[in-house]
Predict the 3D structure of the following.
Amino acid sequence: MVDVLFFVFAAMAVGGAFGVVLQKNPVASLLFMVGTLGAIAGIFVLFEAHFLAAVQVIVYAGAIMVLFLFVIMLLNLGHDYRADIRSGIGAFLAFAVSGAFAGLLARQFRGAEENPLYQRFPGPEGMDALLAEQGIVGAIARPLYTDYVVAFELVAILLLVALVGAVALAKRRV
Amino acid sequence: MTGLENATVLLLQASPGGYDPILPGLILLLPLLGFLANGALGLIGGVRAAEELRSGREPARHEGRPLTHTLPTWIGPATIGLAFVLTTANFMAMLGAELTDPIVRSYWMWMATGTLGVEAAIQLDQLSMIMMMVITGVGFLIHVFSVGYMKDDPGYPRYFAYLNLFVFFMLILIMGANFPMMFVGWEGVGLCSYLLIGFWFQDREKADAGKKAFIVNRIGDFGFLLAIFLLFVSFGTLDYATIFDQAPEVLTYGGGVATAVTLFLLLGAIGKSAQVPLYVWLPDAMAGPTPVSALIHAATMVTAGVYLVARAGVLFALAPVGAAAVATIGAVTALFAATIALQQYDIKKVLAYSTVSQLGFMFLGVGVGAYAAGVFHLMTHAFFKALLFLGAGAVIHSMHHALHATHKDWDAQDMRNMGGLRRYMPVTWVTMAIATVAIAGIWPFAGFFSKDEIIWYAGTAAGVGGGYGALFTVLWGMALAAAVLTAIYMTRLLVMTFHGSNRTGDAEASHLHEAPLTMIVPLCILAVLSVVGGWLNVPGSVRNSIFGGFGLLPMSDWLDRWLQPVTQSAVDIRVAELGGYASSAPVGGGHVLWGAIATGVALVVVILTARAVSRQKIVPATQDTVPLSGIRKHLYHKWYVDELYDRVIVRPVVRASRFSWRWIDQILIDGTVNAVGGVARGFGWFGSLFQTGQVTTYAFILTLSALAVLGALIF
Amino acid sequence: MLVEALVLSAILFVIGTFGVLLRKNAIIIFLCIELQLNAVNLSFVAFSRFLGIDGQLFVFFVMTVAAAEAAVGLAIIISVFRHYEAVNVNNFNLLKW
């Protein structure tokens, strides 16, 4: 059941990703992206990362994508641009480089199951015990406010700076 | 050592002879403060003048003079005057004390590196005290004179700033307790000399004269520095006290180190004191204002070489070759410069060559071991040569005004344009006449006692031996000849300037005037000093003869006795090695006989020259078209030494410099550097090809690089 | 299931890379970068299933940074658009020497 769901979500994600890349209309690309994000959120659920799945849907697919959409609408980009996708040599180079990447990664995955590292890999039992004990929110929140508290505060500052920066950049010059 | 301990030690040291220095640091500080104040005023005045020029306004004609003019009038002379008062107080205190060892006051550690420790310390002893008296005293008079002489000059505060600074550095030179301190003063006075020679720097020729003085002096300073290094290597210290105490043990008599040190010191002294062959800068230095010539280029700075030899008397006593070289250089210079002075028309040039010649006498004196006589002549020379220069300044001042009044473009310094000035400037005439008689060496004026003492010692040195008898006899003869020439050129100067008919022109003559009071008073004081200055050191036998005025002249051998603590060790070495001083001239005769001969000859020469010159028909410079011939031509062109130097040294150096500029610097060095730069540029150009500015290109390269890293990780 | 997730992550990442290189529209390029980030997030979550909760924390931080990046990046795009009246990256050629 889980495997089947995984492959369904995976297919959705890959299809959506291709949609993002190949759709000429930015709005269409964006909607495909939302689909991909949703599919990934689904996969998160399969991996018992319920909290992140929720955040993925609410923040990523909800807020950030809507921000993108706003910008597209604001700039009136919601129609096809013929020259938006490279062709000829540009497309070939992009394909070649990505293909090389894919080739390298694929070579890495071949025979991964026999890898001794993978053989000694721990099972999901530890995580299950943790989740059963604390629940997903507790499991995330506890280290977030203890071990990672400095990073957490820094991220807060980063968000503030980004907020101010975004306003300063996008503000119309007076 | 803490400051308290230091002070205690100083206090304990300060009382051996019952003499406690009175604010010696303040003597140094006062001229420095004067320099700072006048310099600030000069800057303010300059800025204001520049603003007026820029805004196109007429320079504001104030009621009276601006503050930047009136303040230096008081600050400049007052600081030196106060320094003089302090020096006099110290001098009096030292007079009453039997001071055997110099008093050293150390202010702070100046250089402490490894084994070398140099303190900013001053030394007060009989020699430095005499020099300080001369410098502050004559310096003060010349400052006062400058008030009148420079009053219309736009650079008035700047002038006084430089002059104060000069006195400061000169005092450092004199009062320093170690060689580096002396070197600081040495270089400082060189700087001030340069600044003041080129004081009117808008005039190319004058600025060049300043540069010439500076560059020629560098040669000497190089020697001085080498001597300091050698001394440090030999003694491990640079303090006078230690070096002169230990010199007899550390250096062997006539040894290589002693000879080398003294020869290098001599090189430094030659440069600073304008001796053959480095004298060429001094006549050109007359481009500066005349009081500067009086103070720096006659009375004080140029005598620094003599002071150096006198100060390092022990070293020269240990190096007979060095001492003989000093004497030889001195005698040659005395004679050589005197010949040139015979045929100069520029009043200041005559005095300049006269100064060179007299400095030669001083060198001869200290060279033959008569340190007191050399310092004695240094002092009397400061009096009468300052007087001569200041008198010449008064004459030039008057001539300048007269020529300016009618816009005549004659040379205000050419004696051919003067004549008969005694009617217009009686006081100047009288004082100049006194100075002339003094320098000519006629009893009882100052020059008689000092110069003839030097000649006497040169003569007696011939009798002492040490292998240099013949040399010293020749030097003695040269000194005699130079003394005769001195009388001739000085009489010529006096007669051409003040006697005969006036050649200025009728319209101009009515504008000739006696100098103002600020200029006259210093002249009179110096005239008195030129008379009595020589009585400080009357030899006993002369004092008791008719030349001593039947014993009326006071202070027999006073200076000899006064300087004895300083010169004693050098004299001791001399006596031990050479057997003392002879008591007769090479051809016999004693003090009194030769004194009589000298003053008689001088008197005859003066009278003959006066008659000869007054019979000569002199025409103003512009009408003087008859070319000189024979020896006169050579003398007029100063034996072509400048031309010789130009041909032998300057031009080859210029040519070599041009070669190294064109070929070595521009092509070889610049070429190499540019080639290196070109390679870097090439790489930069190649690298810039990747910088298309296209974001996609960058993303592409980034991905490729990531691919490369990934590949490297996998394979 | 780990290997499958990682393979999916790799596929998504490569597609994202391909998109970044292929497209000229700055917004789409941005979306592709988000896609790459998500691919990485996916592998983090997959690992976290077996190795502990820390992977999910990293994802959490990545999302925050992505949000900040989106805000600033979109602001830049807006101000660039004001200048060029377009968001074609071919126009952005001032980043050279």
About this structure: The mean pLDDT of chain B is 87. Residues 438 and 447 of chain B are 5 Å apart (CA to CA). The radius of gyration of chain B is 30 Å.
